[in-house]
Amino acid sequence: MSHAHRYVDGETLLHPLGKVVCIGRNYAEHAKELNNPIPTEPILFIKPSTSVTPLQEPLSLPQGLGEVHHELELAVLIGAPLRQADEATAKQAIAGYGLALDLTLRELQSKLKEKGQPWEKAKCFDGACPLSPWLRAEAVADVQNLNLSLTINGEVRQQGNTADMLTPVYALLAYASRFFTLEPGDVVLTGTPAGVGPLRSGDQLSLSLDSLLHIATQVK
Questions:
Q1: C-beta of residue 100 within 8 angstroms of C-beta of residue 130
Q2: Which residues form the Fumarylacetoacetase-like C-terminal domain (predicted)?
């Protein structure tokens, strides 16, 4: 496991990463833009740790499998075990916050959905989860009032606020813990605001989490 998978604030080792739990359609406008129904409860799927790559390093996209779409997300690092947890316990278990891209082979995902098949091939490929360095949890005063922004080649592509989540962060963690244990080193991606679209070779990306975190990266 590389050091890039393990640090908080760029320097403090915490936990090797485990699984990445993702939440689908947690922003209503994103569900609408893909012509998906707005869910009545969180949609969960999991990326393996092998999908994680450092966000600040150039992004490598799969070749010959169709368009790869960006999905900007607030990422949550788990620091204590959660099983059948309530929201207060979930809050106390958060070790850090960061930014992630849930990279998606959109055409392949659409084909899998049409057949009623799982999404793993479209969501879990190597490099499908670029993650930023972590902010310590205490650096975030209000997790439900954070601005997320993704700019590509100087143009704002995704912009949203965590206040728009259908299910808030602590409730998401508690909900997920009803079905499987969240362990130290696990990461939860909390959904993407509207504006998803394809990445191209040479794209220059700038990502921000309020005034707390800024990351610049590029597509190979």
A1: yes
A2: 19-219
Q: Please report, for residues 50, 150, 170, the alpha-carbon distance to residue 160 in angstroms, rounded to integers and kept in the order given.
A: 28, 9, 18
Q: Judge whether 143 and 162 are in contact, CB under 8 Å.
A: yes
Predicted TM-score (pTM) of this structure: 0.93
Alpha helices in 45-186 (DSSP H): 87-92, 106-114, 120-123, 169-176
pLDDT per residue as tens digits for the range 138-160: 999 999 999 999 999 999 999 99
Q: Per the structure block, which two tokens stand in for 208?
A: 């921000």
pLDDT per residue as tens digits for the range 55-114: 999 999 999 999 999 999 999 999 999 999 999 999 999 999 999 999 999 999 999 999
One-letter amino acid for residue 51 of the chain? S
Mean pLDDT of the chain: 92
Q: Which residues are registered as beta bridge partners of 213?
A: 209
C-beta of residue 21 within 8 angstroms of C-beta of residue 189: yes
Q: How many Cβ atoms sit within 10 Å of the Cβ of residue 212?
A: 15
Contacting residues for 11 by C-beta, under 8 A, at least 6 apart: none
Measured CA to CA, the distance from residue 148 to residue 158 in angstroms comes to 8
Give the length of the chain: 220
In angstroms, the CA 101 to CA 130 distance is: 5
Q: What is the DSSP letter of 127?
A: T
Find how far residue 54's CA is from the centre of its chain: 13
